[in-house]
């Protein structure tokens, strides 16, 4: 009997009790407006026709943070592999460049013993840089040209010395797969070779592949057994998106945190390469999440009818904050009650309150939520009418006024406005102060005079903790100078406020960048450098 036939019979006997995997998948397609829209579908996979490939889950890495994330993710991955194996799937361990360590392992010999496939896809033994010209033209959503190491430089240097002390090459210290992942000698396979793995898949009639491991933007995509090669050669491929990690340094474009960088690569894969799924589809519970993957939560409290921030702020948040991985919640004033902000309980777990309210007096319990947020030392950002947000006569004793909110929290007393409305009246001209010129909030914001679209507010500082970043005057009226953007510290809370914020201001890249920077500064998050790619996103 031929080797291929024997191989097939033995495999069939071993998997006589194979099951079906029911998986919810996600990819992205163009909608009618040309934007990427999420598409969710359900697939049913015969387990005996399914393999899980574990990509480069090495024991060590030249990036210390990468090692930590592998160690954190590996137990959940091992659970997935055990479950998939028990239900009839093949597990292929692919720790690249580590085959010498496994040369005598039964799982390594099993991969080598697979008979040659009748058809070998072109370049299946090679790295695949792009699945096609369309993906290449789109390019990566992150810049990993620096290698993507996100270690602190001093920490990285110490780690390199430690690896050398272990007798490892600091540039490529891996020798084997991390021992937190079990290799079943009776059923699994070990290979980093595209031809071997293809032979194995074809010999066992495997049409479906789950990819787990690292790193998403490099090896998971490009290896001979990676997503691109398998997808373009006709396999049904899913990336298990919660069991992967990227090589991305937040100091590089697009200047988002590491985990958002990974999710952006996942979105790219869903657009151009293959769908994704999550480990809970087989394990139940919740998808895996790294312990440090805790995106800030911003609550927008919106209640004004003069500047249409009910429309401009959600759009701004989508393009500039949610894009960066920041979670945004919106609490709008009740259309039938001008003082009711139902849903403001979201503030209880908010990291920042964004205020765009004009002369509303909420129920006491709701205003107490605002006070409690600030009492915890949590930050606040306000625009335009936030200076007189709660200054109005309460409709009943159950509602509360906070007339001195501008003095006590913003640190400046609002005293009406000049009413200048161009082109009939003089334009509002904005300039950076000497203090502002060196402040991170004005990064990539023009320091020279530029024209804003809002009429100028009258504001006077009342506390010594105020730091004025930008001032405004009227065209041809240099004797006028009013604070327009400033920071304050109130009871430990970081405060940023700008009196700009009209509908037309949101059309100014300078204003969008100012607002983005102010929010990031208030959250104590890094402010991106002056890079024209940061703002404005279409």
Indicate the structural class.
Answer: alpha/beta
Instruction: Supply Rg.
Output: 29 Å
CATH superfamily of the largest domain: Isochorismatase-like
CATH topology of the largest domain: Rossmann fold
* Rounded mean pLDDT score: 94
Distance between the termini: 63 Å
Number of domains: 2
- Strand count, sense and closure of the main sheet? 9 strands, mixed
In CATH, the architecture of the largest domain is 3-Layer(aba) Sandwich
Q: Looking across the biggest beta sheet, what order are the strands in? A: 10-9-11-12-19-18-17-14-15
Please tally the helical runs, counting DSSP H or I stretches of 4 or more residues. Answer: 15
Strand content: 15-25%
Q: What share of the residues lie within helices?
A: 25-40%
CATH class of the largest domain: Alpha Beta
Q: What is the 3D form?
A: elongated
Spans of at least 5 consecutive residues whose pLDDT stays below 50 are: 7-16
Number of strands: 19
């Amino acid at each position: 009997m031929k080797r291929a036939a024997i191989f097939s019979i033995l495999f069939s006997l071993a998997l006589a009790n194979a099951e079906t995997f029911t998986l919810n998948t996600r990819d992205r397609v163009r909608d009618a407006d040309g934007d990427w829209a999420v598409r969710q579908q359900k697939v049913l996979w015969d387990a005996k026709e399914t393999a899980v490939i574990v990509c480069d889950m090495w024991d060590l890495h030249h990036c210390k943070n990468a090692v930590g994330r592998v160690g954190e993710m590996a137990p959940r991955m091992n659970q997935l592999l055990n479950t998939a194996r028990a239900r009839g799937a093949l597990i292929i361990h692919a720790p690249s460049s580590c085959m010498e360590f496994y040369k005598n392992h039964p799982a390594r010999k099993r991969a080598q013993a697979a008979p040659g496939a009748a058809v070998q896809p072109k370049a299946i033994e090679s790295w695949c840089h792009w699945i096609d010209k369309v993906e290449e033209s789109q390019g990566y959503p992150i810049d990993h040209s620096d290698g993507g190491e996100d270690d602190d430089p001093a920490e990285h240097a110490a780690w390199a010395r430690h690896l050398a002390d272990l007798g490892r090459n600091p540039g490529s210290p891996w020798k084997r797969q991390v021992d937190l992942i079990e290799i079943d000698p009776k059923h699994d396979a070990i290979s980093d070779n595209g031809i071997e793995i293809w032979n194995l898949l074809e010999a066992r009639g495997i049409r479906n592949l789950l990819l787990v491991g690292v790193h998403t933007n490099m090896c998971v995509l490009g290896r001979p057994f990676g997503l691109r090669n398998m997808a373009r050669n006709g396999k049904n491929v899913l990336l298990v998106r919660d069991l992967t990690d990227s090589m991305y340094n937040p100091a590089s474009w697009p200047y988002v945190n590491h985990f958002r960088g990974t999710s952006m690569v996942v979105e790219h894969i869903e657009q151009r390469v293959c769908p994704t799924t999550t480990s809970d589809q087989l394990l139940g519970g919740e998808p895996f999440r790294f312990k440090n993957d805790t995106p800030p939560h911003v609550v927008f409290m919106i209640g004004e009818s003069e500047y249409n921030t009910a429309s401009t702020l959600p759009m701004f948040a989508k393009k500039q904050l949610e894009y960066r991985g920041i979670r945004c919640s919106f609490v709008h004033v009740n259309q039938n009650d001008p003082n009711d902000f139902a849903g403001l309980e979201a503030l209880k777990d908010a990291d920042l309150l964004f205020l765009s309210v004009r002369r509303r007096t909420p129920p006491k319990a709701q205003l107490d939520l605002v006070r409690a947020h600030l009492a915890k030392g949590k930050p606040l950002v306000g625009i335009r009418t936030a200076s007189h947000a709660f200054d109005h006569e309460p409709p009943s004793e159950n509602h509360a006024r906070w007339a001195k909110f501008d003095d006590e929290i913003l640190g400046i007393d609002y005293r009406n406005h000049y009413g200048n409305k161009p082109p009939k009246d003089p334009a509002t001209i904005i300039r950076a102060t000497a203090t502002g010129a060196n402040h991170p909030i004005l990064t990539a914001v023009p320091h020279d005079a530029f024209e804003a679209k809002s009429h100028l507010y009258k504001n006077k500082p009342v506390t010594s903790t105020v730091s004025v970043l930008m001032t405004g005057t009227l065209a041809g009226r240099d004797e006028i100078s009013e604070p327009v953007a400033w920071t304050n510290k109130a009871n430990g809370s970081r405060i940023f406020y700008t009196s700009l914020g009209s509908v037309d201001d949101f059309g100014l890249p300078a204003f969008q960048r100012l607002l983005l920077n102010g929010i990031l500064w208030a959250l104590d998050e890094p402010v991106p450098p002056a890079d024209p790619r940061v703002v404005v996103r279409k």
